[in-house]
Design goal:
mainly beta; Beta-galactosidase, Chain A, domain 5
């Protein structure tokens, strides 16, 4: 059994209502006080809150009673097309024509047009695949420019029964007869832990973890911060543990190379918290050629960004010069897939042992 329920904005109200169930899975709809429609996908392990018409963001991910997302002063999403005016999400899609922090020579918004894109279509998918029964949110964002690019963005977030891991995908379909530039990042914002360990199937050496030394316009560095950057440039392994006393203010960003794939071609990243529970991200290295680490930890925000990407986030002009901007042929499509979520202590132990083999 499989099917689709097409969503309309009129379905959403401030009172949360159940739309459908499938086994232990449940989908309900509500509207935040800011007017933003939201979908809750729930199973016996926890739930996801997604924004069907606002970038198809994952606003929150809560499993085994623990919210995975960044600490932020944004208690609710705002109905805006500007990313920094609603920066409290667990996940947002970045791209697809432009991505990264715009430099003076760029004319694109922070992380591109997809982050808060107004989706014209949204739907709930239900069915069963080789992983079991699922509920999913999907939709279509039609990007159209006269004398410019035409593409469709089609994301899917799947939640399965009895699982605290979920699947994220983004398909970009070029609807033009001509090639289009392509830049994409899955921006996953985990809560930066206190005395947590970061595990990765990538080296911790300085030549594999390149520290971003350019300073974006939204970052205001202090002399202490610049000294910190100089130290991390030579010793990135200092960030393998995020201590409770650490302050990352403003942000630090690493471009991680040498990412190793397992026998199935997948890279793995974890944040293990005291007590053993973990945050987890995995993806196919054939789909993502770059990986970005973002850490910001101050009194207003605490975030560990685990960011699979097709390029570095230095803005269009800089990435074009590096040769990192891909080209998607006319009428062609590409799909990016990520698995993310939470692991309990026993699962974390198993995954850590497997990562040590990579």
């Amino acid at each position: 059994m499989s099917g689709v329920i097409h969503l309309e904005k009129s379905f959403f109200s401030e009172k949360e209502r159940v739309l459908c169930t499938l086994g232990e899975l449940r989908c309900s709809l509500f509207r935040y006080s800011t007017g933003v429609p939201a979908v809750r996908l729930e199973n016996s392990k926890g739930y996801l809150i997604l924004l069907p018409f606002n970038g198809q963001q994952i606003w929150d991910a809560v499993f085994d009673g623990r919210s995975l997302k960044m600490y932020t002063k944004f208690e609710e999403p705002e109905d805006t097309r500007t990313l920094v005016d609603t920066y409290g999400m667990f996940m947002t899609h970045c791209g697809a024509l432009r991505m990264g922090c715009p430099a003076p020579e760029d004319d694109h918004p922070l992380h591109g047009e997809l982050t808060t894109a107004p989706y014209q279509e949204a739907s709930i998918l239900f069915g069963e695949d080789d992983q079991g029964r699922f509920l999913a949110l999907s939709g279509v964002y039609h990007y159209r420019k006269g004398f410019g690019d035409f593409y469709d963005a089609i994301p899917v977030v799947k939640l399965y029964e009895r699982s605290s891991l979920f699947d994220i995908s983004m398909e970009i379909r070029n609807r033009s007869e001509y090639p289009m530039d392509l830049m994409y990042m899955c921006h996953l914002n985990f809560l930066a832990g206190d005395d947590s360990r970061i595990l990765q199937t990538a080296p911790w050496e300085a030549d594999s973890m390149v520290l971003r030394t350019s300073i974006p316009a939204h970052v205001k560095p202090t002399p202490e911060f610049l000294d910190f950057l100089a130290r991390l440039k030579q010793a990135p392994e200092e960030t393998a543990v995020i201590r409770s006393s650490d302050v990352y203010d403003p942000e630090i960003v690493f471009f991680i190379g040498g990412v190793r794939a397992d026998t199935e071609g997948r890279a793995h990243f974890m944040q293990r918290h005291p007590g053993g529970v973990s945050d987890y991200v995995s993806y196919d290295t054939a789909e993502f050629s770059h990986h970005v680490r973002w850490i910001l930890k101050n009194k207003n925000q605490k975030v560990l960004g685990i960011l699979p990407s097709t390029c570095e986030p230095e803005g269009y002009a800089a990435e074009k010069k590096k040769g990192n901007v891909r080209s998607l042929a006319g009428n062609a499509s590409v799909v990016f897939r990520i698995r993310a979520g939470a692991l309990d202590r026993a699962q974390g132990d198993v995954y850590e042992k497997e990562m040590q083999k990579s």
